[in-house]
Design a protein that fits this description.
Chain A: InterPro entries: AAA+_ATPase, ABC_transporter-like_ATP-bd, ABC_transporter-like_CS, MetN_ABC_transporter-like, P-loop_NTPase. Chain A: This is Phosphonate ABC transporter ATP-binding protein. Chain A: It comes from Halonotius aquaticus. The complex is a heterodimer of chains A (234) and B (298). Chain A has 234 residues and is an alpha/beta fold. Chain A has 2 domains: 146 residues, P-loop containing nucleotide triphosphate hydrolases (Rossmann fold), CATH 3.40.50; 75 residues, no CATH class. In chain A, 32% of the residues lie in helices and 26% in strands. Chain A has a 6-stranded mixed β-sheet, with helices on both faces. In chain A, strand 1 and strand 2 form a beta hairpin. The longest helix of chain A has 17 residues. The two termini of chain A are 30 Å apart. The mean pLDDT of chain A is 92. Chain B has 298 residues and is mostly helical. Chain B folds into 2 domains: 40 residues; 224 residues, MetI-like fold. Helices cover 82% and strands 0% of the residues of chain B. Chain B contains 12 helices and no strands. In chain B, helix 5 packs across helix 8 and helix 8 packs across helix 10. Classes of the chains: A alpha/beta (234), B mainly alpha (298). Chains A and B meet through helix 4 and helix 6 of A and helix 1 and helix 2 of B.
């Protein structure tokens, strides 16, 4: 289990996340909804280790979550232009590789084989040597997911991963995320502005308003009124 | 794996070749990577070899340099870097160094100020987004020709016109500023966002009015930054123009070298150092102030 206990994060006098506690289950994709400014991004950044919470703990199976165990998929991919798809995926493994390998571009064959396997996993067979700036938005986001998986994480996070994609492409990208979570048995947490795109893949819903949880229920027990309620709140 | 990838691909993986196995693609990638890596190593080795050959042709002989290391060492230790003697020299020469330093700054300031308006006009005319090809091509060529001649040579030429002294130096700095800043201004002008320019043009504004209304406001910050940077560069340049008789700190510098008075050489170098650091600090302050003012009013 991933346990978040009493998580609080202030920015000056502003409270972005206010004493939030919840549990996530392995192999399940949790969808995080809420209006802009509700604290979704701050929660994800605290889970990923990009920010330290002021108070509260994050534990995976009773041990504190290490930054390298949480991988974040960014909005619109956040890939490095000028590098190929496989080189971008290899960036996910930088924390366990010596720096000289990236400096001279000599990665171990094993890592490269795994990286290509990740690209196949997200439906990009044959794309390894394509420059990422030539890929479509949906394909770039798939490379972003492959890069996150290359990190060999325990927790897969995604911050508005489909905000810049058309609905159909967004659905397919979310499906890829959901499959990665179940296949690798990860904790999955995705923040979304269009929750209807996730109705077929969501296992659990979290709703935030003003830094607090206002919805925390399995997807089977959530209907569209509950989701509307989160957006009406605050 | 293949059927699942296809089932939720949403059309975007139409080009994805599901029959391609990971092994095959890995082999293909390794082949491409080996070729590319080999090419890079070849280029790097070729580069090192050509630099080594050029250095050998120039007569680089590390053994000779090492054998004669004491020549420079003794001058440095015994004459240039002796704090007490240097301090005495600085005090004794202050009456000559301070006016020469002031002259150097004045040469840089007057030269930059004289060159700036001409650089603005030429820079605008040389931008391919502002003028048609028959105007910007010859102006660019002219700017390139101006840049091809070093400032030292301009200084020698202007000594013929203005006589020995700082006027020749200021004119040389002005011409160099036109060539360099004109080019930078033109490049900056070509990078701007064309949409507001079209919006202003669509109101029926003429070419000069359009440039003033929509182009210049987009480049003002960059132009100020470049101009201040050129003031710094010109201060450095004008500190050596005196070597050819065009005023400033260069004249005492070359005279001290000729007299083999290396303590005085070091005193002049210290004066140049103080001057350059001072100009850079002032320019940075000014940049910061202009930058922060812009942020406030935006």
């Amino acid at each position: 289990m991933l346990d978040i206990e009493g998580l609080t994060r202030h920015y000056g006098t502003e409270t972005a996340v206010d004493g939030l506690s919840t549990r996530l289950a392995r192999g399940e994709l949790t969808v995080l909804i809420g209006r802009s400014g509700a604290g979704k991004t701050t929660l994800l950044r605290c889970l990923n280790g990009l920010e330290q919470p002021d108070t509260g703990t994050i534990n995976v199976d009773d041990a504190p979550l290490a930054a390298t165990d949480a991988a974040l998929v960014f909005q619109a991919g956040a890939l490095v232009d000028g590098k190929s798809a496989v080189e971008n995926v290899l960036d996910g493994a930088l924390s366990r590789e010596p720096a000289w390998r990236e400096l001279i571009g000599w990665h171990s064959p094993d890592e490269k084989r795994v990286a290509i396997e990740r690209l196949h996993d997200v439906g990009l067979a044959g794309y390894a040597d394509r420059p990422v700036e030539a890929l479509s938005g949906g394909q770039q986001q798939r490379v972003g997911i492959a890069r996150a998986l290359q990190q060999q994480p325990d927790v897969l996070l995604a911050d508005e991963p489909v905000a810049s994609l058309d609905p159909e492409t967004g659905r397919s990208v979310l499906a890829v995320l959901a499959r990665a979570v179940s296949e690798h048995d990860l904790f999955g947490l995705v923040s979304l502005h269009q929750p209807e795109l996730a109705d077929t893949v969501a296992g659990h819903y979290l709703g935030m308003a003003d830094g607090r949880l206002v919805l925390d229920r399995p997807a089977a027990e959530v209907d569209s009124d509950d989701i509307e309620g989160v957006y009406a709140n605050g | 794996m293949g059927d699942r990838a296809a089932s939720d691909s949403g059309g975007h993986t139409a080009a994805s070749d599901d029959s391609l196995s990971v092994d095959t693609e890995f082999q293909q990638h390794q082949q491409r990577w080996r070729r590319r890596f080999g090419g890079r190593v070849t280029i790097a080795v070729g580069f090192v070899v050509s630099v080594a050959v050029a250095a050998w042709w120039l007569g680089f002989d590390l053994g000779y340099l090492y054998a004669h290391r004491m020549n420079l060492w003794s001058v440095l230790i015994e004459e240039m870097l002796v704090p007490r003697a240097l301090w005495a020299q600085l005090q004794g020469d202050a009456g000559m160094l301070v006016p020469a330093a002031a002259e150097t700054i004045a040469i840089a300031a007057v030269g930059t100020a004289l060159g700036l308006p001409v650089a603005l006009v030429f820079g605008t005319l040389a931008a391919n987004t502002v003028t048609p090809r028959r105007i910007h091509t010859p102006v660019r060529l002219l700017l390139g020709g101006i840049r091809a001649v070093p400032s030292m040579v301009y200084a020698l030429l202007f000594v013929i016109l203005a006589g020995l002294g700082p006027v020749a130096g200021a004119l040389a700095i002005a011409v160099g500023t036109i060539g360099d800043l004109g080019r930078l201004f033109a490049d900056e002008m070509e990078e701007i966002d064309e949409r507001p320019v079209e919006a202003v043009q669509s109101t029926g504004a003429g070419a000069v009015a359009t440039t003033a209304a929509a182009r210049l406001p987009q480049v003002t910050t960059a132009y100020i930054a470049w101009t201040l940077f050129y003031l710094e560069i010109n201060a450095r340049k004008s500190s050596v123009l005196g070597i050819v008789g065009a005023g400033g700190l260069g004249f005492p510098l070359i005279m001290a070298f000729r007299a083999r008075n290396y303590t005085r050489v070091m005193a002049v170098i210290v004066a140049i150092l103080v001057l350059i650091v001072g100009v850079e600090t002032a320019a940075n302050r000014l940049r910061g102030r202009l930058g922060s003012e812009r942020r406030v009013d935006q």
